[in-house]
């Protein structure tokens, strides 16, 4: 996957993303936002905010910054913010998740939903998420991770892998691949519907991880 392929895929998806993918991916999205909403007063970075489908679900005392690589998806997100008067959305910015234009430790919590199989450099992106998260802060990832054992599911994922550019995500992406080289502490990994195909991964940045 490269940036141009990602932009092209989501340019196609922008206007019908919510009705097609909104329900399909709702469980993981809701699980992540519920987890975040256990606390207030947070500054949250949502990486891959897309059409902003999750923005109205955040607690109003949590300030949210959303970034995405797709101009078209961000345009839909901004329309949503304006229409729903989401005053806790601090900004929506076009930005590469692998090259975040934020200072170290800018956010209490960073969340990336259905993003890590899309970005060109998942490991580099994880390092960036860690960098902009405050020491002791939380990072939530919602994603599909390939089956870790041989079987029908792994075979289907491998068969689909060559179509990654058309799909806009990597079916054969593994958790080990994502965490390779990461200094984050994995706190929890739980499956979410539909069919257990997606997982909610909770990591924490250690206080001295980047010292």
Automatic annotation (TrEMBL):
What are the UniProt keywords, alphabetically?
A: Methyltransferase, Transferase
Q: Which domain of life is it from?
A: Bacteria
Coiled-coil zones:
none
List, alphabetically, the CDD domains matched: AdoMet_MTases
The processes (GO biological process) annotated in the record are: methylation
Q: Its Enzyme Commission number?
A: 2.1.1.17, 2.1.1.71
Where does the Methyltransferase type domain lie? Answer: 45-141
**GO molecular function annotations of the record:** phosphatidyl-N-methylethanolamine N-methyltransferase activity; phosphatidylethanolamine N-methyltransferase activity
Keyword Protease: yes or no?
no
Xref: Gene3D superfamilies: Vaccinia Virus protein VP39
Q: What is this protein called?
A: Phosphatidylethanolamine/phosphatidyl-N-methylethanolamine N-methyltransferase
For this protein's source organism, the top of the classification is: Bacteria, Pseudomonadati, Pseudomonadota, Alphaproteobacteria, Rhodospirillales
